[in-house]
């Protein structure tokens, strides 16, 4: 007799084989999951960008004259972490570029909206004073942003040969937007202060020193050699001043008085220059003074000495010997 249970088992197996699998009716969810993850990642990145915009807004307050509103340790850690999370993981190059460009546009906006308007209507010492203030505030703002975006300088930027460091961007931005337009006014104002003191007027020496240090700091970066240009113009102005002074003294003073005044000019010029000029510039300046007061008028000095029958030759030789060590 045929086993009925055997047939029942075969029939059940055949029925199951013909029934569509339940998994065939479910859609493939892998693409949906991927899209959901990407959407969540973009949302998180947008939140981080909003937080960095908050950091930028607060940093720009420094340019508006509120440097006392510094960042707390908690704020620094928060902003630094957001910048890191935006740029530190694989596939985040677009975010790194966004931070890089946002850093640059922030600097440009600050210069165009705050720095240039504050400088354009000023001149002389007031112009230089405002320049130093604006550069100080601008540098402080840039340093804070560089701290927040440190990861770019350490990892992202070195991998690209085309990108400048954040520090170079900040200096070049100020140089390109401010110095290219107003440098001639800065130079004229600084030389005016030197001439004023040379004529016996009181000036702010510390201001002049800070301006020249600023010229040298800007000069370290690629582009126009601003300090060298200032130095060349300053030496030309000095040569003109002492050439005219020598002509006046040769006409009005005796040989003895002339040599005494030359000695006084050397001492005063050296004292002034030592306060705000670097050593190399001091030597060049003294050489210009020596040339205009001693070397150039030598024939006229000898002529005057002959007319007076004085001991000018000896005095002249002593003066040359005294200042010979200051030549380049």
Detailed description of the structure:
The structure is a single chain. The protein has helices at residues 4-18, 30-60, 73-87, 93-120, 124-148, 150-156, 166-198, 205-219, 226-252, 255-276, 279-295, 298-308, 312-323. It is an all-alpha fold and 328 residues long. The protein has two domains: 46-203, Cullin Repeats (5 helical Cullin repeat like); 236-327, no CATH class. The longest helix has 33 residues, at 166-198. It is elongated, with a radius of gyration of 37 Å. GO terms for molecular function: ubiquitin protein ligase binding. This is Cullin N-terminal domain-containing protein. Belongs to the cullin family. InterPro entries: Cullin (IPR045093), Cullin_N (IPR001373), Cullin_repeat-like_dom_sf (IPR016159).
Q: What global shape is seen?
A: elongated
CATH architecture of the largest domain: Up-down Bundle
Overall average pLDDT? 84
The biggest beta sheet reads: none
Low-pLDDT stretches: 10-26
Structural category is: mainly alpha
Q: What is the CATH level 1 assignment of the largest domain?
A: Mainly Alpha
Number of strands: 0
Residues in helix, %: over 70%
Query: DSSP helix count?
Result: 13
Total count of domains: 2
The CATH topology label of the largest domain is: 5 helical Cullin repeat like
Distance between the termini: 128 Å
List SSEs in N-to-C order: HHHHHHHHHHHHH
Strand residues, percent:
under 5%
Blueprint of the fold:
Blueprint (H helix, E strand, L loop, with lengths): L3 H15 L11 H31 L12 H15 L5 H28 L3 H25 L1 H7 L9 H33 L6 H15 L6 H27 L2 H22 L2 H17 L2 H11 L3 H12 L5
Helix pairs in contact: 2-3, 2-5, 3-6, 4-5, 4-7, 5-7, 5-8, 7-8, 7-9, 8-9, 9-11, 10-11, 10-13
